[in-house]
Amino acid sequence: MSPAWKKAVHWIESNGGHIHASLRYDDEERQVFLGLTSSGTPPIEKDTVLMTIPDVCLVSLHSVERDDSSPFGMSLFRVIHFLETMSRQSGESPPIKSPSDPSVGYRVGKTLYNNSQDVILALYLSHLKEISGGNSGNGECHFFGPYLATLPADSKFLPRQWPEESLSRRLFGTSLYRRAIEEREGVRREYELVKKSWLSSNLGTEGNFPRFELYDGMLGCLTSRAFASLGFDGVDAMIPLLDLLNHARGHGCNGGENMVRYERYEKNGSEASSVPMVKRQKIPGGGVQVRTSKPVSEGSALNMTYGAKSNATLLGRYGFCIDDNIEPDGSCNDVLEFEVKPGEPRVKLQRGPKSYCYGPLIEALEMCTTSRQERGHESSDVEDESDGLDAFLNGCEEDGFGDSDGESDEQDCFYAGTMESDDLAVVKSTDSGVEREIAALQILESKLLEAKSILSKNPLSGICDKEGAMSDEDWYCSILVRSELHTLTFYSGLCKAVLRRMRKEEFRSIGDIDSRHIENTADVFLAIRHGSM
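Predicted structure:
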């Protein structure tokens, strides 16, 4: 059994929690297992409690607030509040979590890049590491020391933390490359901003402020491990030991069924009766409980799903990819952020049934015909066609396609917002309108093929199997590159299929699942936008 796991279990149980005796963590495989073997042992029943983690062991803003051992945590609240106040006074919005990736902020300039909660927690945990010996320390002198010891020793597991040479080689031509550069610059900028404000407020000397390397690494741990709204009062929290469970999704997720489920429990059985934990109180209280969601055999590796996330999100936020990121309905969770026009918002391309790819196709085509300002005045050039909309929606229902899980994040469910009546408006099929759309399709196809040609030059593009000496990072990036090449091929094929129909050319379907999705979407395109052709 892992020494760090053993110490963390003792720490949790000493503070009123519970860890199932059969759970163990394998350091080499970086995996939580239930027992040692499955031979001759009956499975553990559904709803068996595997973990009970009390609030006092959760790392959240409440942890910072109630830490009397150092004034550093409370000083962070004052500094961040000051920065947010200055941002509002200067007309900027406070930092928020990006809807496309909760780990990434939108803000530039005077505000923070990440949301303030993450910045405070990352600096607080960095401080604990700093006073315990920096990268080599695990904070054992502090209450949260047993938890800090379970965090990865290698803090540079995210693309934004890689050396420039490795980043450009691995992610050349991908949509994640630009985002990784933005994250790197944003994290450095916000660190320097907070540090400057902290020092100018006479809260301490430069030697008392955590080094950037510690902050950068701890922020990576935080954004890859924190659970949304599971702390007391609905704050985000890091949950010891539960965060060691790996992600499984799509075909690799045992038929799509989670092995465990987790939820908050409250002190007296209801949220209304729960009260904040007294400092270092060691009696049963609120917290998070983890149960089996189905019978689990002894010896099984325990996994959970982080949601229907794209490989770009998984690599950028968690540091890994999965090779078969496909849902049972045939849709791919991967999302390619495609730049149609410089300076314009990127279009999120996802391959799959027509309900997934029709909206992004229309969005990209509009960028190929008009400027953003012109698109704001195009409503007078289109008319709503309820018959076409009904046919589209009915066709989607007949396909039986849809999200099989309520855990999708906003980036990976963007297509849920693409079926509004405005998006499905029917363009009047004048000759000029048809010619304009044919031209737009040709432009878009050309842009897709150009992007594919560039991405094909990535040195990892031709790798389909992990070689013995290949690093995990190279393998994960090869998965991402192949997926984005697949998506570019899919949408260029979709453009070609629509063009054939608009030109009334003969075509023959290959019959594979991608071809079926392409042909169905092309048929819908003509029915909705050119019903009179």
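Summary: The chain has three domains: 3-58+239-304, 61-234, 311-529.
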